[in-house]
Fold this protein.
Amino acid sequence: MQRQIFTDEHEAFRRTVRTFLDKEVLPYYEQWEKDGVVAREAWLAAGRQGLLGLAVPEEYGGGGNDDFRYSAVLAEEFTRAGTPGLALGLHNDIVGPYLTSLTTEEQKRRWLPGFCGGETVTAIAMTEPGAGSDLQAIRTTAEDRGDHWLLNGSKTFISNGILADLVIVVARTSPEGGAKGLSLIVVERGAEGFERGRNLDKIGQRSQDTAELFFHDVRVPKENLLGERDGAFVHLMTNLAQERMGIAVAGIAAAEHLLEITTRYVKEREAFGRPLSKLQHIRFEIAEMATECAVTRSFLDRCIVDHSDGTLDAVHASMAKWWATELQKRVADRCLQLHGGYGYMTEYRVARAFTDGRIQTIYGGTTEIMKEIIGRSLLA
């Protein structure tokens, strides 16, 4: 089916992204995988190419365009290239909305130019060793000390944790407030008492630095409060739909690309004197995956348009995230199986896609949390 959601401008941007990947990412990606972190030069190159801060107003160095379809193009092309380590989606679509919608004018001028230029790599720190999806379990505290916040606690599984120059930390500012007693506190590189733990050893997305963060009596200026005090819960709920959409877009793009790779493979690979594609079971497998991808693509494209128009709600974003990432997981498993022993070799794209994509049903809210959100909306 011909996709109808992109204009000539979007396709021109797609060509720009592909050129950037060919020149600035793919030649170095294997080394980044070995190093466990992306080179900072890649972030600076992305800034020079205009791939950072797409929705940030031009006066602060951004693209000035909040059309989510550009973010979708970026996610699709990075997924097809197999390069999730350079986490532009995290920077643009997850952290970005907090820095554009919640900041004061002074904060915008202080943080956004570096955000758009690639000099300031960002992260958001929600998850703790004992608190994942349950915000009420967050124990990191920010105590009001008059002219500053005193921040104490720890976070884990923080994407961009090693490289990040600016971290939005979810901390408890009102002990009796439950999930509603949380605030967003911005911690900058070099703050005394702010320490990074180890770069966590993951089964996939190895070049995407993921770290533990520790805060020991960190004195954070009062002007680094982001949004309203005790308002983090509302702020987080407002922005989670876009995070989940970004993950869903990558999910369907990955499934489609794996299907393309595997379709070519079964046409070329022979068994028992003929191509695998001549076997009925193989044809049925390809037919099932192709149909599932086509149906999912139709729903995702509708969600992309609705989100670009500002009409997508949290429930449909959760549906998109759940369905697309679970499809990605199934397709990766089935495509690996169709590759046989070669699918288990890391030199084959399907092997890396299998491990890189496994996190998709976990971060940004697990599949189980997505179902809970949907179920509550229907049965409340």
